[in-house]
Write a structure and sequence with these properties.
- This protein folds into 2 domains: about 1-30, no CATH class; about 35-105, Nucleotide cyclase, GGDEF domain (Alpha-Beta Plaits, 2-Layer Sandwich), CATH 3.30.70.
- The longest helix is centred in the middle third of the chain and has 12 residues, at about 55-65.
- It has one helix at about 55-65; strands at about 5-10, 10-20, 25-30, 35-40, 45, 50, 70, 85-90, 100-105.
- It is mainly β and about 110 residues long.
- The protein is globular, with a radius of gyration of 16 Å.
- The two termini are about 15 Å apart.
- About 10% of the residues lie in helices and about 45% in strands.
- The chain has 1 helix and 9 strands; from the N terminus they run E-E-E-E-E-E-H-E-E-E.
- The strands form 3 sheets. The chain has a 4-stranded mixed sheet with strand order 4-7-9-8.
Length: about 110
């Protein structure tokens, strides 16, 4: 059973639920659906910021995901973790050459 916790940041107050017992907990915030993309590659460090094609690719992977989804650019990112993934096929990522085979994180 998920536990409800509360947080505040400035004027923003949220209630959220944590599902799981680590290391792959899922945080649910009612009414807030986010999308995420995960890609690994070499990044350029400029001060406190990261840049480069790997950062751009990660953002484009996230743009293909729907609300509440996490997409990864390869199964090697979750191999051995116990996280299941669902094949989402070849995708065109805006501004990134070629087709990319993407996977949606299914469950931990």
């Amino acid at each position: 059973m998920p536990t409800t916790k509360y947080a505040r940041s400035g004027d923003v107050h949220i209630a959220y639920q944590v599902v799981g017992e680590g290391p792959h907990d899922l945080v649910l915030v009612p009414g807030l659906e986010v999308r995420a993309g995960l890609h690994t590659g070499e990044c350029e460090v400029q001060g406190e910021k990261l840049s480069g094609i790997a950062v751009h690719t990660g953002a484009r992977v996230a743009s293909v995901a729907g609300p509440g989804e996490v997409f990864v650019s390869g199964t090697d990112l979750v191999a051995g973790s116990g996280i299941r993934s669902e094949d989402r096929g070849a995708q065109i990522l805006k501004g990134i050459p070629g087709e990319w085979h993407l996977f949606a994180v299914a469950s931990a």
